[in-house]
Design goal:
Elements (H helix, E strand, L loop, with lengths): L2 E12 L2 E12 L3 E5 L6 H8 L7 E6 L2 E4 L6 H4 L2 E4 L11 H12 L4 H14 L15 H13 L5 E5 L7 H16 L3 E5 L3 H7 L2 E6 L2 E6 L1 H6 L4 H8 L6
Parallel strand pairs: 3-8, 3-9, 6-7, 7-8
Antiparallel strand pairs: 1-2, 1-4, 4-5, 9-10
The protein binds adenosine-5'-diphosphate and magnesium ion.
The site of adenosine-5'-diphosphate has 11 residues, from β2 and α1.
Length: about 250
């Protein structure tokens, strides 16, 4: 597998608060990397640095050998190749589902309406929501809105997809329908970085798991390495805070 995303000595702080303290990570095409770690350890900030939503103090992030952070004008197009799905879906309330997901491809990628709608309907079909295309976001459940948000990200044809705790705000019965969509994306070979507290899901989806704490990568390995053979005391005590299916 070829390397697609490379992070070198990434350092990020907010004023005098150091959040990321020298992160090195190389992600291969088609790899699924799950990031776990205690609340406040910098997981969201890390993902935001990867698609240029945050400026960085040191180091660099490159996608297919093009530097995308530090951000410069020439890197704007490369950044569009990284899609992100957040905990809050941020759909436009006064636009229908179909409008929500075709807006950016038409504006940013200058795609024709009919063509964008064709792809949108196929993707909605795939996540089981084609019947909701003319509904408004308020008429959908949280799990349905999150699946729409995933479709919206896919419409931009990203090379890499970032997921930041996308099920954290959902009722338990809706978590599975969203995780199943992400699992199916993993199976079709998409490159993804996923922050989650769903440990059973992490085990099922990850090629590699990264444990972050205090702005650093403390341990990484296969799900078996991380869950069955944690080496550091920090990871061991972090895992104790979860009950998960073994
Ligand atoms: P996680 O996602 O792992 O819970 P975050 O990346 O959200 O952690 O936050 C890491 C640290 O950075 C926290 O201490 C948080 O308060 C701080 N932080 C995050 N965003 C900002 C910001 N925009 N300004 C100042 N501090 C921030
Ligand atoms: Mg977070």
């Amino acid at each position: 597998m070829d390397e697609i995303l490379k992070i070198e000595q990434l350092k990020k702080s907010f004023d005098d608060l150091s959040v990321l303290d020298g992160i090195d990570l190389s992600v291969k095409k088609g790899e699924v990397v799950v990031i776990v770690g205690p609340s406040g350890c910098g997981k969201s900030t890390f993902l935001r640095c990867l698609n240029g939503l945050e400026d960085i103090q040191e180091g660099r992030v490159s996608l297919e050998s093009e530097v995308i952070n530090p951000v410069s004008k020439s890197t704007v197009n490369a950044r569009k190749k990284i899609g992100m799905v957040f905990q809050s879906y941020d759909l436009f309330p006064h636009k229908t589902i179909l409008q929500n997901i075709t807006l950016a491809p038409m504006k940013v990628h200058k795609r024709k309406k009919a063509e964008a709608e064709g792809e949108a309907l196929q993707l909605l079909e795939r996540v089981g929501l084609v019947s909701k295309k003319d509904n408004y976001p308020r008429q959908l459940s949280g799990g349905q809105k999150q699946r729409v948000a995933i479709v919206r990200a896919l419409m931009m044809h990203p090379e890499v997809l970032l997921f930041d705790e996308v099920t954290a705000a959902l009722d338990p019965e809706m978590v599975r329908e969203v995780l199943e969509v992400i699992l199916s994306l993993a199976k079709e070979g998409r490159t993804m970085l996923i922050v989650t507290h769903e440990m059973a899901f992490a085990k099922a989806v990850a090629d590699r798991i990264i444990f972050m704490d205090g702005g650093k990568i403390i341990e990484q390995g296969t799900p078996d390495d991380i869950f069955e053979h944690p080496k550091t005391e920090r990871l061991q005590s972090f895992l104790k805070t979860f009950t998960y299916d073994r």
